[in-house]
Each structure stands twice: as C-alpha cells, then as structure tokens.
Amino acid sequence: MTANAPATETVGLYGADASPDEQRAAFREGRVPVAVYGMGKIGLPLSLVYGETTGAVTGVDIDPGRVAALADGTNPLDHEPGVSALLSELVAEDRFACTTDGEAAASTARVHVIVVPTVIDADDDPDLSSLEAAAETVRSGLDPGDAVFVESTVPPGTCEDVIEPVLTAGERSPGEFGLAHTPERTASGRALRDIRGSYPKIVGGVDGESGRVAALVYDELTDNEVIRTSDARTAECVKLFEGVYRDVNIALANELATLTDAFGVDVIDTIEAANTQPYCDILTPGAGVGGHCIPYYSHFLLDAITDPAPMIETGRSVNERMPGFVVETLVDGLSTDRSVEGATVALFGVAYRAGVPETRASPAIDVAHRLDRLGATVLAVDPILDELPEMPAEDVALDEITDRDVDAAALITAHEEFGDVDWHAFEREGSDGIRRGITVVDGRQALDLSETAHTVYTVGRGWH
Ligand SMILES: NC(=O)c1ccc[n+]([C@@H]2O[C@H](COP(=O)([O-])OP(=O)(O)OC[C@H]3O[C@@H](n4cnc5c(N)ncnc54)[C@H](O)[C@@H]3O)[C@@H](O)[C@H]2O)c1
Ligand SMILES: CC(=O)N[C@@H]1[C@@H](OP(=O)(O)OP(=O)(O)OC[C@H]2O[C@@H](n3ccc(=O)[nH]c3=O)[C@H](O)[C@@H]2O)O[C@H](CO)[C@@H](O)[C@@H]1O
C-alpha cells in the first residue's frame, strides 16, 4: 500500500531538467513519493517528518507486528514525544502508510531513505547486513532519476564501497540515480524536534548531483541549515567524529571518576566547576556507555584504518571497563560483611539510557554477567522494558523489588520511575535492634540515601 499514490506522473529529482523551484514544489506536493526503510526509533519519526512535508511516504519494515500497528496508526514505540499523535494524524489523512512489501514500496518511490540498524558483531567488526538487505530491496525498484539517502550511521566509505555496488548490481548504473549519506543527528527521546531542525543537517553525495538533490530535499524538511560536505565519505566521517568525540570525552570523565579516592576530591563537583570555563566541557562519569550508537562508532572508525589510533582505542577501553569498576566497588563494599558469592544483588536499570527502551551494549548486561561469574544472584528491575535482554538475572517488577531480601544494589540507569523506590525497605533490623543497610553503588549520581542506613558509593563522588 502506498500513501497518497500521486494521481499524476511521479517525479525523479536526480538529473532532472526541472528548475530547483519546480523540484521543490513537486516534492512538497507529493509528486516525489518517498519510501523509508526501517521503522525504528529513528526511522519512524523521520518518516513522519517526511510525511508532514510531502504527504506521500511509505514506511517499510521487516517486522510484521510493527508494520501492522503502524499501518493502523498505532505507535509501538511510545517513548517519543509527539510521534503517536502525528502518526495517527498522517495515517488518517493517508499521508503515511506502512508495509512489509519493500519491493512494492521501492517500485513507487522516487526517494529511498535507509535507516536500518548498523551494529557491530561479537568481534567488534561492523555488521552492515541489515543495510545491505535494505539496499537490495531498494535496488528492486530503483529507477533512473531516483535518489537514495543513507541515514544509518555507517563506517567511512560505505556509500561508495558497499551501497553503490548493491544498487548497481541490477539494471541501474552509477550516475543514473542519486546516492548520498544524510546522517541522523537525533537522539531518542527528542527525535521529532531534532529531525525538524535542532541541528544543521549534514548531507554528502557520491557525486555533485547526489549532494544537490539531498540538500534540496532536506532543505524542505529541516528548519535549520543544510551543510553539504564535499562527498559521501566526509558526511560519514562527520557523524562518526561526533560520536567518537563523545566516547572519548565520556572516557575522560570516567577515568577521572575512577581516581576519585586518589585525588581526594568529589570529581562530579570538580568537573562541574571546571566546565564553567568555556573551553572545558567534560561530560559525566557513569556506570558505562551503552546503546548502538556511541559504543559502536569508534569501532566503525577503527575498522576502516590500519594505522594505530590509541586515543580512540583507549577511550573505548576505559568506557568498557566501567561495568567492571561498578562490580569491583560493590565487592569492596560487601567484603566487610560477606562475600559476593551467594549474595543477592539488585540492578536498577537495564536500558542503556533513561527513558529509552533499547538494551544494545547496555552496561547492566555486563554487570550482571560479572556478578554471575562471581557467584552472586542477580535481580534486575527496568520499568520501561517489556522483558529483559539475554542476561543472567531474574526480571523483577518495580513494585516487587523492595519485597526481596537483597545484600547489595547498583543503579545503572536512572529511570525517573526509580524516584519512588522505598530504599528503607532494604534495611534489616539485627538481633540487637539496630537497623543496618546494604551496599549501594549509584552509577548515575541519581540517589540521595543520606536518610537511610545504606553504605553508598556514587561514581564520581566516592563512598558516603
Ligand atoms: N537511536 C538513535 O538515537 C540514533 C541516532 C542517530 C542515528 N541512529 C542510527 O539510525 C539507524 C537505526 O537506528 P534505530 O535506533 O532507529 O534502530 P532500531 O533498532 O530502533 O530500528 C531499526 C528498524 O529497522 C528494521 N529493519 C531491520 N532490517 C530491515 C530491512 N532490511 N528493511 C526494513 N526494515 C528493517 C527493524 O525491524 C527495526 O524496526 C542506526 O544506523 C543508528 O546508528 C540512531
Ligand atoms: C554526539 C551525540 O551527542 N550523540 C548522541 C548519542 O545519543 P545516544 O542515544 O547514544 O545517547 P548518549 O547520551 O550519547 O548516551 C550513550 C551512553 O553514554 C552514557 N553517557 C552519556 C553521556 C555522559 O555524559 N555520560 C555517559 O555515561 C549514557 O548513559 C549511555 O549509556 O548518539 C546518537 C546517535 O549517534 C546521536 O544522534 C545523539 O545526538
């Protein structure tokens, strides 16, 4: 099913004779049908912004359940402000449709937007299998004059060395269609706002005409400026450099936090004071760096080079060490009372970031495995996940965790729902009538347990 299939001839933009104004008008009037491949945290809001702009967008996904819900105007991912309302509005107006039939959507579309997962495998090598599969779907319906925009974050050179060969393995040749990298700078939780223009939009084409078409289209979508890079590879690296900057910066904060006792200062307060100087912007230490963005982008860059890159490598390894630091600290705290072997430990927060139901590379998973290897029994609480990812932990509901007898706890992700936890419930009254607390590691500076009997270690602040 294709939303609002134009009654008139559809228009391709790449290499078109029409003037830029005529092309912009055609796009806005829905005569340039769009297909967006990947209805996830980013692809769905992105397709809705396309839909509100052109009225001729079809979302494609391989998940039948997700497609059925979306086609019906129901949003399975309701953590994004504004998405549910915009989705039902555009479906009702036939300005957005959704399908699992990617080939049908590709045959109608004149702009193809790919925003499927790009991840790393167990060896930290890029896994672009979803991207290649989506490109093969596009190829099946690629016509001269079409444009393909790759929004997924990709290793340097992917558009030219991976996507273009897939697209030209059929009837099309290079130069017959547009291909550009148009990286998404959105963060989950503020996707619509970001896509509509929180930041300048980066676009880079495999050739000049591809870059021109990408800039023309995204100039219609964003309220912000469109920055055209010299080529697709540059646009790919812009996105990756942003991410690796963040990874290395967080690593600096984390390294400083592991030295809290050595420096004898509250590192959080110290960073806050240091950041009052405009040339200093140290990010926040925590229990680790998760998600399928920041932890992966360093590997996308490292995989593309043979030269040493010690800063990138070290930043990644410092961040990957933080779950171990949390467990070592928990074991230290327990050691005065009992061994970690046989202890019951409650983990608060499994999603990689507060409010976002995504668990790829979540620090809590590594923490659970480390505790399990030490012989602890692990309980995990995450109010925004329907179920836990694969991890050695018992899934406990938020309203049941304080009924459990736990020896220690760690807050890994600071969901706002944890604000109502009654931490006194974990205290125990000894035979001497004294209420004793447990060891708690606060990985996100989110807890104030000063009124409890618990012994707390806050990452970046130390024991208190
Ligand atoms: N989540 C973010 O904050 C964010 C921000 C910027 C960039 N990105 C990048 O955007 C891309 C997508 O991320 P996401 O968070 O939306 O992923 P996601 O896992 O939330 O959604 C991906 C969707 O793509 C679908 N899919 C997989 N293979 C497909 C195929 N061959 N054809 C059609 N659909 C397919 C999946 O079923 C899923 O619905 C990644 O490259 C990511 O790096 C993500
Ligand atoms: C460059 C940039 O800004 N990119 C953002 C990022 O968004 P994200 O959804 O991946 O979320 P982050 O906030 O980066 O968190 C990742 C993990 O790092 C932990 N963390 C974070 C900040 C900190 O100071 N200390 C930490 O420990 C946090 O807990 C979590 O586990 O990538 C998206 C895709 O590229 C971007 O679009 C988006 O703009």
Automatic annotation (TrEMBL):
Enzyme Commission numbers on file: 1.1.1.336
Residue ranges of every copy of the UDP-glucose/GDP-mannose dehydrogenase C-terminal domain listed in the record: 346-449
Family matches, as SMART domains: UDPG_MGDP_dh_C (SM00984)
The reaction(s) this protein catalyses: UDP-N-acetyl-alpha-D-mannosamine + 2 NAD(+) + H2O = UDP-N-acetyl-alpha-D-mannosaminouronate + 2 NADH + 3 H(+)
GO biological process, alphabetically ordered: polysaccharide biosynthetic process
GO MF annotation: an example: UDP-N-acetyl-D-mannosamine dehydrogenase activity
Listed InterPro entries: 6-PGluconate_DH-like_C_sf (IPR008927), NAD(P)-bd_dom_sf (IPR036291), UDP-Glc/GDP-Man (IPR017476), UDP-Glc/GDP-Man_DH_C (IPR014027), UDP-Glc/GDP-Man_DH_C_sf (IPR036220), UDP-Glc/GDP-Man_DH_dimer (IPR014026), UDP-Glc/GDP-Man_DH_N (IPR001732), UDP_ManNAc/GlcNAc_DH (IPR028359)
Keyword annotations: NAD, Oxidoreductase
PANTHER family from the UniProt entry: UDP-N-ACETYL-D-MANNOSAMINE DEHYDROGENASE
Family note: Belongs to the UDP-glucose/GDP-mannose dehydrogenase family.
Protein name per the record: UDP-N-acetyl-D-mannosamine dehydrogenase
Organism this protein belongs to: Halorubrum ejinorense
Lineage start: Archaea, Methanobacteriati, Methanobacteriota, Stenosarchaea group, Halobacteria
